[in-house]
Q: What sequence folds into this?
């Protein structure tokens, strides 16, 4: 074996043992010399690359990292950090809040156990090999997806007719100034004031205006009976100024000021439909000496009226859609939330289809009536102010300031105690009749789903003197069986002979 020749330094010895370890010497870079080795007469040369050459080879082999790869790596790193953070929060919650002796577990353990026991019968609908804890979340998730699919299908799957936009017409109403400085807009139909035999003042219903009047009324009919019909805009509706704090008492006083301003010197009749009924009933309570009689068409009463029986209240609420029930609940408990709903519906400027509001097919198919309906709605939202509509909804479901039973004719004696009672037995001068003494007529369509007949039944029970006319197979406006001539004739007879206090005393 040939002897290896050549001087070997300590660096040559180190390089012969290890490869490039990444150690750098600034002053003297590491280099490995080429040393010839001879084995059995053959000379072999070992050539070792320098560290600089080795790094250059690595740079040539690895391609540069793109921005996409950097973002991907950054996102993966953050994902791992968030996962670890979530696991840590979960462990903290389990160890501090969900233990058996924690406050939350002690307070919720019994209610959750009772609720689980009541809902446990739902598990009978699951397959026997399915764990309820895993099956019900899947069922709930699928239910949410189904609702979303149905909603998308109803919105975009069918052809939706174009929506009509509300127009704002130029002001054209006649207005009067009330004692408090507000202005009230009104509209007259029929004969003039000097020829009028009967004066009728009509407060409109919700989402309506002075232009509503009596739907389908003919001018020759008003002239034949000598009727002067005066309709007006409630505060904040149409062209009437809003009232800062209105109630049913101020509504009755507005009606009285209107009658005096338009020259109604004698008593007048009040005629109202649907939601306008509460304003007409308020007139019977607060200005009974100026009201000759009342004609109400499907009047709305307070669905939360304490005087309603359980059967009347049940029949009132059972036919309403969940949407209407929810709106009544909001008007009574959280009226501020009505603002968002009203702005998304009629105050958005879109005229909804008439069949969403009416149940009378004849009126729906009549283009003339639909045109009048749209014009009336446009006038109602003229001011684009949501406050009057919220006030009207609140008035309907809140305390009216009086009960319907107070309108009932009854004898009331002054004073309380034994002496006034003994005195009233020998003298009739100490007693007087209270309530509303004039005639009250009510017409109700038995197929009306907006104002259910149970409301009229409640009025008839509380006010037995009222004349209730039930119309079978009729809806909201009952145009087929209601003959205006017969209505006006029946009212005309009672106008000629109004009940006097002496006659009421004889009845009592």
A:
């Amino acid at each position: 074996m040939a002897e290896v020749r050549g001087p070997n330094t300590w660096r040559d010895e180190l390089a012969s043992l290890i490869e490039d370890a990444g150690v750098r010497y600034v002053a003297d870079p590491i280099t490995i010399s080429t040393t010839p080795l001879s084995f059995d007469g053959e000379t072999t040369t070992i050539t070792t690359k320098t560290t600089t050459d080795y790094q250059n080879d690595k740079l040539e082999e690895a391609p540069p990292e793109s921005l996409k790869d950097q973002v991907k790596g950054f996102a993966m790193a953050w994902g791992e950090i968030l996962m670890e953070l979530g696991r840590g929060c979960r462990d903290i919650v389990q160890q501090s809040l969900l233990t058996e002796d924690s406050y939350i577990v002690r307070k919720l353990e019994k209610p959750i156990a009772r609720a689980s026991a009541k809902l446990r019968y739902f598990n009978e609908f699951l397959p026997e090999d399915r764990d309820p804890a895993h099956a019900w979340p899947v069922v709930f998730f699928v239910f949410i997806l189904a609702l979303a699919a149905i909603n998308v299908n109803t919105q975009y799957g069918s052809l939706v007719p174009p929506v009509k936009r509300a127009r704002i017409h130029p002001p054209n109403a006649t207005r009067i100034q009330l004692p408090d400085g507000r202005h009230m807009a009104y509209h007259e139909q029929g004969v003039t004031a000097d020829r009028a035999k009967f004066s009728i003042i009509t407060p409109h219903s919700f989402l309506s205006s002075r232009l509503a009047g009596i739907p389908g009324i003919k001018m020759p009919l008003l002239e034949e009976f000598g009727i002067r019909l005066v309709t007006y805009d409630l505060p904040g509706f149409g062209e009437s100024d809003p009232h800062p704090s209105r109630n049913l008492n101020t509504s009755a006083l507005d009606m009285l000021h209107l009658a005096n301003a338009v020259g109604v010197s004698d008593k007048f009749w009040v005629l109202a439909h649907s939601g306008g009924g509460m304003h007409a009933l308020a007139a019977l309570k607060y200005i009974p000496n100026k009201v000759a009689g009342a004609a109400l068409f499907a009047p709305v009463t307070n669905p939360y009226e304490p005087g309603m029986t359980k059967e009347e209240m049940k029949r009132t609420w059972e036919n309403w859609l969940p949407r209407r029930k929810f709106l009544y609940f909001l008007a009574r408990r959280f009226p501020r939330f009505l603002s968002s709903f009203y702005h998304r519906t009629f105050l958005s400027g879109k005229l909804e289809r008439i069949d969403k509001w009416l149940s009378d097919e004849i009126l729906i198919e009549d283009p003339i009536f639909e045109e009048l309906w749209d014009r009336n709605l446009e006038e109602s939202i003229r001011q684009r102010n949501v406050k009057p509509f919220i006030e009207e909804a609140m008035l309907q479901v809140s305390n009216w300031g009086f009960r319907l039973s107070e309108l009932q004719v009854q004898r009331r004696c002054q004073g309380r105690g034994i002496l006034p009672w003994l005195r009233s037995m020998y003298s009739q001068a100490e007693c007087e009749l209270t309530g509303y003494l004039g005639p009250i007529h009510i017409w109700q369509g038995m197929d009306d789903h907006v104002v259910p007949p149970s409301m009229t039944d409640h009025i008839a029970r509380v006010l037995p003197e009222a004349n209730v006319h039930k119309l079978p197979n009729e809806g909201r406006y009952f145009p087929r069986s209601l003959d205006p001539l017969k209505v006006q004739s029946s009212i005309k007879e009672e106008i000629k002979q109004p009940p006097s206090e002496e006659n009421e005393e004889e009845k009592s």
User: Anything to note?
Assistant: Confidence is low (pLDDT under 50) at residues 37-44, 155-159, 358-362, 495-508. The chain is about 45% helix and 15% strand. The domain at 163-413+438-496 is CATH 3.40.50.1820 (Rossmann fold).
